[in-house]
Task: structure prediction
Amino acid sequence: MLTSKDVRFSVAPMMDWTDRHCRFFHRILSRRARLYTEMVTAPAVIHGARDRLLGFDPSEQPVAVQLGGADPVGLAEAARICADFGYAEINLNVGCPSDRVQGGRFGACMMLQPDLVAACVAAMKRAVAIPVTVKCRIGVDEQEPHAALFGIARSVSDAGCNALIVHARKAWLDGLSPRENRDVPPLDYELVYELKREMPQMPIAINGGVVSIEAARAHLDHVDGVMLGRAAYQNPELLLRVDSDLFGDPAPVVDAHDAVEAFIPYIEARLGEGVRLASMTRHLLGLFAGRPGARAFRRRLAVDAVKPAAGVDVLRAAVAEVERALSAQAAA
Result:
């Protein structure tokens, strides 16, 4: 079961961004945020390098895996594998509009087949004991949003879906790029609020265009949860306010400086396994945004962290750029 507290705040699954290093760092910033993997396809889970695709640090929990696929049998097998890895939730992607995903006949194009989505959810529910959830759009192409969203919500609810995450925009499968689909179609938050009023028993989270904790709080007057995407990634210090402002708990670290220090033991351990520094520090580039020294911090990481022998001294030197700039500002 998922409760409204479980879905109250989450960081969206984002391809090439929310990998295991990113999630570990985000967990340092918030103990309460629910974290999601990048989308991984069911065939990749079944036939691919599972440790590489699915491995995560236990401290990331609660962490959910997002699956892509349209075959109920394959999704059920993939869900079993993911559950055995220890994930807290299986999430089905019914919202990605990329050409590659459309070519596989899954993602947002499944909005056109609510019965198939329901069959996928039902198959995964039979296969695992952990919650199964769906992330969808409010419709695709020429679909009427109310009919599309309410139709798929009822279908997956009947199939046993434990929560619905709604990106409150249509997806245009022909004519807009995936990037444009994140910004161009207008947001319709009120439609998602209406869905929650219609289905009070279903935990519903809203996604799309949410850029601040204040905006998240406003949405929580109408729905059970809020999922932040690019804002949480590009300005990770937003997550420092999640536990205190949305859950009433103390923040796990004081500020970005403390967060970096807490991340360093993890970085050192992964460096010892052969992971390159830049693979981890690229998730820190949004720190210190808008403050003195932020540009020098980013430049130092961009130039030096990619070098083959780069170690934590590079990260410490980047942070020192911020500290020097702050000291210079204070002395001026």
Notes: The first strand starts at residue 9 and ends at 11. The two ends are 56 Å apart (CA to CA). Residues 256-331 form one domain.
